[in-house]
Design brief:
The protein is mainly α. The chain has one domain. Helix content is 41%, strand content 0%. The longest helix is centred in the middle third of the chain and has 12 residues. The chain is globular and about 35 Å long.
Length: 76
């Protein structure tokens, strides 16, 4: 998750404080639409798997917790 938080901070240099797991990244504009494809590329790099954006919704990316659950949790 550190890589994702570092990426968010790089896109938001004025951001102070911690990013909580339940912070709404979309509503707070920490992940902006103009950098969303770059964010998808980061997820693909971190997971080593392609992200099929056609099967996803914005809710899948809304919080750090959701990103972790949807993309970085171990597969059972």
């Amino acid at each position: 998750m550190e890589e994702i938080i570092n990426w968010i901070r790089s896109k938001n240099p004025d951001l102070d404080g911690e990013i909580a797991g339940d912070t709404d990244l979309i509503e707070s504009r920490l992940i902006a639409s103009v950098s969303f494809l770059e964010f998808i590329a980061l997820l693909e790099e971190l997971t080593g798997k392609p992200v099929d954006v056609s099967s996803l919704s914005v809710a899948d990316f809304r919080t750090i917790d959701r990103i972790k659950e949807n993309f970085l949790a171990p597969v059972a």
